[in-house]
Fold each of these.
Amino acid sequence: MKDQIEQSGFASIIKDVRESREYSVLTSGIPYASMIGMQCTPMGDDALFTLPNQMSNIGNPLLPAIHGGVIGGFMEMSAALHLMLFMEEPRLPKIIDFSIDYLRSGQPRDIFAHCEVCRQGARVANVAVTAWQSKRELPIAIARGHFKLSRGTA
Amino acid sequence: MLTEQQLTDFASNFVKVIPHCLHLNMSLVKADRNGIELEMPCDNRLIGNPETGVIHSGAITTLMDSCCGISVYTRMEQLEACPTLDLRIDHMTTAQPGKPVRAFAEAYHITRSMVFTRGVAYQEHRDQPIAHVVGTFMRIGQHSMKPVQEYMQ
């Protein structure tokens, strides 16, 4: 899948994935997403992002707890993929800034994330991300990011 | 205060015993009273855009969270666990592919319950940052660090 992205370009892959709803094409085609092991699955008209527990994502081996940076990276990647999949026309988001509030430590178990586009203008999108483990009402982190939208390469 | 040698030993151990830091092959460049400097080598697993080969911002978030998290100890009397309360990253420009990323972070204010940190990620020079970061860390007490010290020895 990585080769496919290199050959036909990100923009055309996104277009295909939006139609096929085979979101795993994106996560398996992006090396960073594969490295942390994240997954993206359709959920109604929306998408659910999952970060399955893996030893290499641990940040505190004693508690143990998942590295806060990985939780942040997972939420950033979720926000970017969400924009690629659900904007009116497929465009490539480029990160401007990202702000994460850590509410609970990440237990060594799956993390789920859901994204919401608060505002999408012509140039910039504002996305809110909620990450949770046991229950959605008990988030482990919430984040907000701004992304610049371009038709070219992100 | 921790001596600069204690700080250097702690920081160089930290990046080796934290599984995800080890996974990204982070290393300590310098640790002193002024702050902490880490390096993350160029690695194809960190790529966020396969078309351009640019690393994903999440890898920079992880590097900066780690660097800010260690910088907390430049202002501490003793080691104590300090979880991240929040982290904000402003991306000035995209990282250049094929080059390592360095991080510098300092703890610019400390209170009885909080530590305020800030830092930059850069590739060529510290005065040409690719990202700025501010992070707040919570002090949860000295008793919390005993098992950590034992683990790291």
Amino acid sequence: MLWEVDVHLLDPDADHAARAVVAGAAELGIAGCTKSRTAAGWLIEGEISRADVERLATALLTDPVTESFTLAEVPDGQLLAGPHDLPTVLHVLPRAGVTDPAAQSAQEAMALLGLRPTAVRSVRKYWLPTLEKADAERLAWKLLASEAIHDVVIGPLPLKTLAGGRPWTFAQHAVRLEGLDDQSLVQLSREKCLALTPRELHAVRDHFRMVGRDPFEIELETIAQTWSEHCCHKTLGSPVDHVGPAGSCRYDNLLKETVFAATQKIRESLGAKDWCVSVFRDNSGVVRFDGDHDICVKVETHNHPSAIEPYGGAATGLGGVIRDVLGTGLGAKPIANLDVFCVGPPDTPAADLPPGVIHPRRLLSGVVAGVRDYGNRMGIPTIAGAVAFDPGYTCNPLVFCGTVGIMPRHSADAAVRPGDLVVVAGGRTGRDGIHGATFSSVELSSASESQSGGSVQIGHAIHEKTLTDFVLEAARQRLFHAITDCGAGGLSSAVGEMGAQLGATVDLEAVPLKYDGLSATEVWISEAQERMVLAVAPADWEKLAKVAADEGVEASAIGTFTGTGKLVLRWEGRTAGELDCHFLHEGRPKQRLKSRHVPPAVQPTAWTTGNVVVEKDLAAAVVAVLGLHDVASKEWIIRQYDHEVQGCSVVKPLLGPGAGPADGTVIRGVLGRDRGIVIGVGLRNRLGWLDPYQMAAGAIVEAMANAIAAGADPGRIALLDNFCWGDTRREDSLGTLVEACRGCHDMAVAFAAPFVSGKDSLNNVFAWTDPSGRQHEISIPPTLLATALGQVEDVRRTVTPDLKQSGNRLAIVGLSRDDLAGSQLALTGRVQGGRVPAVDVAACRNVFAAVAAAQRAGLLAACHDCSDGGLAAGVAEMAIGGCLGARIELALVPSELRDANSAPEGDLAIAFCETPGRFLCEVPTAQADRFAALLNGVAWGWIGAVTGGECLEIVTTGGPSASLPVDRLARAWRQDRKEL
Amino acid sequence: MLSPRALILRAPGTNCDHETAHAFERAGAISRRVHVRAFAQKPALADDFQILCIPGGFSYGDDIASGRIFALELKMRLGDALKKFRDKGGLLLGICNGFQVLLQTGLLLGDPATGAARAALAHNNSGQFIDRWVRLQAMPGKCLFLQGIESSFDLPIAHGEGRFVARSAADLAMLDAAGQLVLRYAADARGVSTNPNGAAADVAGACDETGRVFGLMPHPERFIDATQHPAWNGRLDGAAAGAGLAIFANAVKTVS
């Protein structure tokens, strides 16, 4: 029997989903949809009586204070009955096989009442006015459902059963590579979504020629996963011949000789004081923290899945990076998350979007909701982040998720031993996310949304939470020798990596499945979420299984790490595939790549301000810049994230009585202890096309400046790189990547800030054909996200940007230069061209040291780094946070550009240039002399004071001043959104 | 004298258990985190404790509704044990998700005649999860957790389903008259209400007739140190305690 229980709200005013439908319909221009009602439905299948279903509905599915329910067998007409003026009934439900977390939880809970249905599925129901079928469908697909994961049914549900598939019968598929020409190999690779080049397929063919047979599908898939861009830095690890502005150079391994090499040099020069623990080899980078803890950090991208299904893509992106931290060494506890999104402008006209592209506004709200629902449920505070808006990201949005973890010292090293059991723990395996690893390595196209739906995973955060509780307890009891997460490539890459030296035998039928019907290959490469693989000594297996049972986690021994150097895959005792580990991990043919970078010519600064009154335009520009999407408040996002759970937060993302923005955010590493962890992020995407070296350098300096402004010790900052690039098969595109890698190397060495981990996402290119048949291709701007993981000795000595006390003096530290290219001011239309803001390494190093010294000496009441929007936006943000006024004089700002520009442009340039490596400091008058003494040899100046008034006053070099009420600034910064 | 013992009851998805245990320890108790499975296997565990706290989190993912499955599990497996614990003088505290659970078990604000819930915590009127700080005013009455907390204070909230709703206007009036609606959202320094979710009568927390069972949506365990306040920097002494600590200290004092 298939029952349906619909749960209705008693108070129609509380029906938020209905309000969202009405608002969304109006936005889509669907007339007549002025009213709606919704219900949460449950489909329940099994030999269950009506009375029992009623018991379920009453005791479990409904809150008697706020809800009522209807109950009937599908497709009884009662289930469609709603208000008389809402005759259209629309159902949105997860497709068969797609993870349905709520239904899983509900099914498990039904056992508490002694009822065991065979299947449960959730369904959202909407009652709508009479609508054209096309309008109803548009409403469903644009607003309520995602093609990748949902079915939409208008009218009665045509379901008779929720039953899944039948058990798979063993079969082997050999794939013939012999005799195929390159064109056929390309076709084969595309059809099977392997993302392997003909050259790589030649190597596979030659290897199997030696084996004496054709490869089986499962073997080919394993090779494709292992050799994917996603899993092995295919491009960044390549030998490259580069020609750039600094001459030509030759790399045998680009990443090793730039980013890794910088870390190596720093560690060597630190000698015995080296504080790196495990870099670039585990799932995250590990550094020393205090006497008994190390901390680790990883930032991942989940761009392609998020482009297709923003909510699921972002949620599983976060879920994946959390597991990276959990799977570091012998297990680390995740203690903070960060998220950074690069998306198209929210005001992009819908008509301008290529087919298959999700509107940036819907995309952003989807990814935010995904991070929110996953991170909040995991109980990990989301404490840092950023959002950048640029048309270059409209078709290829970037979604970065990061996690910080903490672990006992001496647990960073892990090693599988021969004879260890292969144990998979956590969620069950389904068809979720098959080909995710290879999919993320190919470019998106208009067809991706329908073709690649299977590549999108849906997360179930509570499974990951219980999995985390289990792993941390098992780690505490030292019940495993090694651990890694099942991410891209699923078991194939997790077991493959762990057994890369030893080899393993895996019995694939022993892997617990969500539903029947998966083939051995599907089990092996499925990217079902919330799974970890552990290497467990047979003697510890029972204890481990008990810990799992106590935490309600499923753990299964599915094989053995053998020591034979062979990866053997079996199904009920029969061999499904056998691969030589050496070939799998070392057999990929490397290709020497060529790259070239010709810097674009610098355009002279061209002002378009005309004959304006300088102080008036300055005031207008401050308001305009604060309201720009990059600069404006992200409060509407931040407040959806639980950024305080775990109780360790000290410097929060929104600060002060006015809830102004933070630079770096700070948490205690351990509850009750005073040593802190500081997170800063840097993104200079607007410079990506102009100067990829300075884009990377600027991002790194911004991330470090964020951390230092909050109080981080500049001598203890670890960096992470996340490269997101276009089609690096092109020489010019690879050229910009090489330049960025060089920037990373030079900055890391200059600031003695080692890179400890990183990740790349290449081929962020979108291809489509317009109605006239013209082919288009659009690439993202070269983008490096830099993340700084800093440390502070005592969190009680941190400093925040919000202004504290009227009468305190304001200083700017660092020289302002004539470099308006890529600035926020340029986005307001006042200026074009200009020089790219470049990092003056020596000056910047001195500024960092001076600000840190002032911090240590306790001389600062507030500190803020100057980034997007420059000095003017920076002071305004400090005033907003502190609910205090300030008065600054532009003539007092140390600058090389006062002589170069005459007012009014000179004043605008000083107020808004984004020269990297500058800080605004609030200093109590009594500390002014000590502060000044610390700044010897650094360009700096007193520029004004905090005032008790309610205005920010900016005095122009000519004398008159722009005066702006702080609440006017706050409104502009909040883009007139209500304060939450 | 022995320190009082606090049982921090967790379920799959509970995620404020560590800091809640820490808060009780700061207040002088010995805390132990116990999984509901272990408790259900051995309900007599409760005999070793004087305080039982259901902390915040997303028990069972808040699937179906927040606290629903955990509440059902407690009713089916531990209903008697919890009643016994309360009746022999134990203190029960529910924070955020724990408040949602306590209401749905009927242990807090249950109808004396039928045991049915007389109040619920519905979706915020914004329809969204929200993390922010609010101003609170206690009206301690019988509530043992709020004794002596006379002036208003700040705590953070972080929830999607925290809008206090009574079964009827009569129920609300009755609970109010009985002095059980002991914690209310108040106005901030600018005189603006900080009720973050549309709660009826600004209710942020409530206690039972005995004052020994208390549930609240705000998170007192997130403000036991001054440094947890979003405006502490440059304004509060970083080494001082936060306002939330008093709630744990009251509990510990009561059972000492």
